[in-house]
Amino acid sequence: MNTFPAWLVTKSDDAISVSRTDLTTQDLMEGDVTIQVDYSGLNYKDGLAMTKSAMVIKNYPLIPGIDLAGTVIQSDSEKFKSGDKVVLTGYGVGEKFNGGYTGIARVNSEWLVALPDNMTTRQAMAIGTAGFTAMLCVLALQNHGIKADDGDILITGAAGGVGSIALSVMHKLGYTITATTGRMQEADYLHQLGANDVIDRHEFAGKARPLAKERWAAAIDVAGGFTLANVLSQIKTHGAVAACGLAESMDLPTSVAPFILRGVALYGIDSVYCPMPKRLDAWNRLATDLDLAALESMTTEIEFDKIPEAATAILKGQIRGRTIVKVPQ
Fold first, then answer.
1. Which of 147, 165, 184, 216 is the S-S candidate for 131 at Cβ 3.0 to 4.6 Å?
2. Which CATH number do you get for residue 81?
3. 3-state class (DSSP) for residue 6
4. 161: closest CA among 247, 277, 251?
């Protein structure tokens, strides 16, 4: 029986181990679609899973990798047929269910999105969970009514995957953007993606006032904690914030003042269990609103065997933009 490479996280008693191994299709979980995986991606959750840094993985043994893109090789679903190109993000893949760090994956067809016509599987993973989340943030702000002429948009943690793609998309849509980063050496990179201004994240590190000077029409935040509290205090009246991460903290040490005195809206972005209609809308918008040349400029491709090293780097905040993994066949 043919084998294929995979990364596998196992647990024996209280000991967790991560190893590269060879599997067969008999080792895969149940599902109605089997996929030859071309690419996966590296996300913060993947860093946690591959370095055993947090309880991200809920079931053992498990193949990590919270997203994947590839070609259907067998299908019992009416929605997909052999040869179809598909992308999968979320639904607990890489946490509760086997993920993308494998040559072949078997999944539930209800989780799959058909790859947009103008997009390759490599580009789909350069977008990945991070880019999909970024697009959901953009949609939340636009649905709130935030227009390009309403004022500056703030994007925190802009040198990371979510921030880089959000910045690129909003720049293409004509917004004026201020980016924050803890790595000011990345200022040139952020300007190239479309940032009009780049400021140090430490401006948002202290305890927030209930209300501060109104600076931003809206914001996309990946940090949480004091950063999000400060951002909320600086949003203009009737503005909005899309919150999608906790890179700084899960806490939100703020008050009700921005919400009841300025009418600020805080939108929580769930990319894992996002309903399929909204999911399809986001991928279709990514196919038209994301500059694929800019996407390539922010993308680094690594070998399958280099995932553990990259996982450590992403947890240390050392990864710029998007990192994709070429999966060996």
1. 165
2. 3.90.180.10
3. strand
4. 247
CA distance 35 to 24: 13
Q: Mapping DSSP to helix (H, G, I), strand (E, B) and coil, where does residue 138 land?
A: helix
Q: Which domain holds residue 92?
A: 4-115+298-326
163 touches 186 (CB < 8 A)? no
Answer yes or no: do 246 and 171 share one domain. Answer: yes
Q: Is the preceding omega at residue 258 within 30 degrees of 0, hence cis? A: no
Cα separation, 6 vs 327, whole angstroms: 9
> Coil, strand or helix: which one is 99?
coil
Q: What are phi and psi of 268, to 5 degrees?
A: -85, 130
Residues 157-191 have pLDDT tens digits of: 999 999 999 999 999 999 999 999 999 999 999 99
255 plus 149 within the same structural domain: yes
Q: Is the pTM of this model over 0.85?
A: yes
Do residues 219 and 228 lie in contact, with contact meaning Cβ atoms separated by under 8 Å? no
How many domains does the chain divide into?
Answer: 2
The Cα-based distances of 266 to 2, 108, 109, 234 in angstroms read 50, 32, 32, 13
Return the closest-CA partner of residue 181 out of 207, 154, 157, 212.
157
Asked whether residue 202 falls in the same domain as residue 234, the answer is: yes
